[in-house]
Fold this sequence. Notes:
Elements: H1 4-13, H2 36-39, H3 41-45, E1 51-52, H4 64-74, H5 87-100, E2 109-112, H6 115-126, E3 132-135, H7 142-149, E4 153-156, E5 160-161, E6 166-167, H8 170-180, E7 184-188, H9 200-212, E8 216-220, H10 241-246, E9 247-251, H11 254-257, E10 265-269, H12 272-285, H13 294-304, H14 306-330, E11 336-338, E12 345-349, H15 357-368, E13 370-371, E14 373-374, E15 385-389, H16 394-412
Helix pairs in contact: 4-13, 5-13, 6-7, 8-9, 14-16, 15-16
The structure holds pyridoxal-5'-phosphate.
Amino acid sequence: MLSVDFIxxxxxxxxxxxxxxxxxxxxxxxxxxxAIKYCELSKWFDADxxxxxxxxxxxxxxxxxxxxxxxxxxxxxxxxxASVPDDFFSTITDxxxxxxxxxxxxxxxxxxxxxxxxxxYVINHFCKAGDKIVIQPPVYxxxxxxxxxxxxxPLNNPLIRTxxxxxMDLDGLEEIVRREHPRMMILCNPHNPIGIQxxxxxxxxxxxxxxxxxxxxxxxxxxxxxxxxxxxxxPYLSVNENARRTGIMLGAPSKTFNIPxxxxxxxxxxxxxxxxxxxxxxxxxEFNSPTCLATIGAxxxxxNGEDWLNEALEYIQDNIDFTCNEIDRxxxxxxxxxxxxxxxxxxxxxxxxxFSHEQLIDFFVKDAKxxxxxxxxFGQEGIGFMRMNIATPRCILQEAIKxxxxxxxxxxx
Length: 413
Ligand SMILES: Cc1ncc(COP(=O)(O)O)c(C=O)c1O
């Protein structure tokens, strides 16, 4: 829990000139809102006085039109079973066309209640026990859990680390696919935890390799709207015919507009047979039913949230630049930030500090008193790394940097 004094200081620091239409500098106390990021610190870190820069939601207030739409619905006073509103799918197809130049049609879409659940449904429907599924660590940790939890076997095709980023091991993928005959591959596009934008060429090669052996590619594009510095997002299904024939794309307004608690996501399948089979099964199980607030928040976000999103992305980029410079300064270059091309998570290479991985975790929790995601949770390739969520007001980030700097200075002594 943040101390009262500290919260008061943050409120004072918040009174900074607001440059755009929206205020991302404003500190909002989330400690009594059941936010996992704040309320589960003790459970995961065994300490409740940490600055929380871990779980991937933003500390920014959503665009006011989303709140207004939800409030309007709440004022009705009856919260019965909800159908998917007529304009839900056309709102998404318009967004994908306008924002990502990606053409799809409402019948190719289904509602899914969250991306992780969506991947779980896809595995349940298309795989049987013992099937192999390719993942590419270091990668969003629930992928492995989803595979193993559904009695399938994860096949690792680790990313290759380069000087400033990572590449996909396409030759490794081809070999694994030919040798092991996996049923599926889970692609993270863009890639969490490093924020990599996969190129058209890379995605097309994935599609060709996988389609040649009949491997279904599930592309998790939850971070796709969060491309930084005007980079285009490249939806997997846009890259070629092989991707459209064997691919399943999952997306959501949740990360984009900071509404993951509304639990609203969607799925696009171009191939008719695959679509009919999966969407039919979803329908029988009622897995495609939203709560009465989910689609309302999503529609309001896609219709009215674009200016907010553009400003949020600029703020996030400034926070990333600030973090890179400051981490370099306070660590004398011993810690390195992998600059993300998408989203608000930065991958900190802490190997230069010379700690064992356990010492590294202790350093952040016990000495610096900040909560980050342990890099090893994304796969053993993440040993020596930490993931930091910088979608927070600058005053929080400044405090985090100060804490890390002070903790490093103590070690030097
Ligand atoms: C790549 C990726 N997929 C899925 C999710 C979670 O999505 P949901 O809450 O819709 O299950 C996250 C959240 O951090 C993520 O980074």
